[in-house]
């Protein structure tokens, strides 16, 4: 098993917390499957919009997220 | 299109704490040393005392995905500047992190160009792209101790 | 439309000599005391070292029909502000008379509004109307001792 | 006879001078006739665009300019 670190930002910290969580995965996982697993653990995510980013780039759907990655959960932005 | 020299400032886009209002005049003073620049358009955002469901806003607490924000601001400035032709385009963009109270400044953008349409247009384009694309979040804190999250349209 | 409070500054639009770059930050600092203001758009014009048929511009000498200029700037700000809705619109407009050298500032406009579209839009509208309607003339002086008269489009 | 003071601005000062000139008129004169008289005295005005203003307001065509008025000759503007 490898681990993926998941870090929440903005309002999602109210659901997941400020501290990154770790998920065990095989070699890699699809972005969609990762989101399903997060939803199972944090049902509050079901009401929230957010995107995933790895290495400062968005990932989605069938794109693979490798073990050892850091994944950012990015809700809609509020800068400016 | 003719070649445009694009100058982007500062090295780091994110700053701890509210931005000083003197910043615009400081940047303007630097731009005035470039004899090709004829127009400078600036924008400063101020925290408003909005009435919300959670009470009256007294401050906004800003957080960011810092590395992604720094990267995306540079990319969006280059992309938006691509739409303008001017011997020189000089873009300064800065955003506050942490607590910014009502009347204080969370964002400043300054754009110098040879002529005013490019200065106005690019200043506004950078601002709109920044609000849509840069991973920053604002937690609006209210006078009743409540909060709500700022969401850009 | 909802009622808009329109505040116009300063009492006199025309100033002798180039405008100080600190002006924008000074006005911004005053605007930040109004908790209804969320966006401030500014414009500063700079004298460019343009190449002209008469040589390279080194300065512009500005003159005006003073009483008519003061009257027309007030009227055009009221008229252009009429197109915008905001709890408050705060407009500062100032223009230099006399000699303004390359890199110096002949014009500054600062507009504060509740939201950014009104601040940007009105700042630009005031600038365009001012160039078209206010009786000011600029004699471009060149490095070869020549001159030509600036004409706005 | 009354007099009208005529004051040139901007580039027109190169034709008429910086000092106001005085024209004698009957009770009043139309803006168009005033322009014709100015053109007769200053042929260089023929190549120039300008408008007339009295008391900070534009006048043109058959509008009357009264004796005792101050008339401003306003070429295209160059502010900003």
Which terms summarize this structure?
heterotetramer; A: 80 residues; alpha+beta; five-stranded mixed sheet; 2 helices; B: 153 residues; nine-stranded mixed sheet; 9 strands
- Count all strands of chain A and give the number: 7
Q: Which word captures the global form of chain A? A: globular
Helices and strands of chain A, in order, run as EHEEHEEEE
Q: Assembly type of the shown chains? A: heterotetramer
- Specify the overall morphology of chain B: elongated
Strand content of chain A: 35-45%
Count the beta strands of chain B: 9
Distance between the termini of chain B: 33 Å
Strand content of chain B: 35-45%
Listing every helix as H and every strand as E from the N terminus to the C terminus, the arrangement of chain B reads: EEHEEEHEEHEE
Low-confidence stretches of chain B: none
Structure, explained:
The complex is a heterotetramer, with two copies of chain A (80 residues) and two copies of chain B (153 residues). With 80 residues, chain A is of the alpha+beta class. Chain A is built from two helices and seven strands; from the N terminus they run E-H-E-E-H-E-E-E-E. In chain A, the strands form two sheets. Chain A has a five-stranded mixed sheet, with no helix packed on it. In chain A, strands 3-6 form a two-stranded antiparallel sheet. In chain A, a hairpin with a 2-residue loop joins strand 4 and strand 5. The mean pLDDT of chain A is 95. Chain B is an alpha+beta fold and 153 residues long. Chain B contains three helices and nine strands, in the order E-E-H-E-E-E-H-E-E-H-E-E. In chain B, strands 1, 2, 3, 4, 5, 6, 7, 8 and 9 form a nine-stranded mixed sheet that branches. In chain B, a hairpin with a 5-residue loop joins strand 6 and strand 7 (107-113). In chain B, helix 2 (66-81) packs antiparallel against helix 3. Chains in contact: A-B, B-C, C-D. Strand 3 of chain B pairs antiparallel with strand 3 (39-45) of chain C, so a sheet runs across the interface.
């Amino acid at each position: 098993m490898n681990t993926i670190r998941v870090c929440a930002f903005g309002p999602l910290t109210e659901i997941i917390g400020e501290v990154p969580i770790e998920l065990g995965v095989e070699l890699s996982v699809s972005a969609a499957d990762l989101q399903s697993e997060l939803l199972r653990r944090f049902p509050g995510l079901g009401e929230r919009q957010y995107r995933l980013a790895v290495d400062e780039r968005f990932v989605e759907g069938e794109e693979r997220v490798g073990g050892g990655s850091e994944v950012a959960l990015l809700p809609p932005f509020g800068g400016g | 299109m003719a070649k445009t020299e694009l100058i982007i400032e500062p090295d780091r886009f994110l700053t701890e704490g509210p931005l000083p209002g003197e910043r615009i005049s400081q940047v303007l003073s630097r731009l005035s040393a470039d004899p090709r620049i004829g127009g400078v358009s600036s924008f400063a955002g101020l925290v408003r005392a909005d009435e919300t469901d959670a009470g009256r806003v007294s401050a906004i607490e800003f957080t960011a995905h810092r590395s992604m924000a720094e990267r995306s601001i540079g990319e969006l400035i280059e992309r938006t500047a691509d739409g303008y032709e001017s011997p020189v385009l000089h873009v300064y963009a800065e955003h506050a992190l942490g607590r910014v109270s009502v009347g204080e400044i969370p964002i400043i953008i300054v754009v110098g160009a040879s002529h005013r349409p490019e200065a106005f247009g690019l200043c506004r384009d950078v601002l709109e792209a920044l609000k849509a694309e840069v991973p920053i979040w604002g937690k609006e804190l209210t006078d009743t101790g409540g909060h709500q999250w700022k969401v850009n349209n």
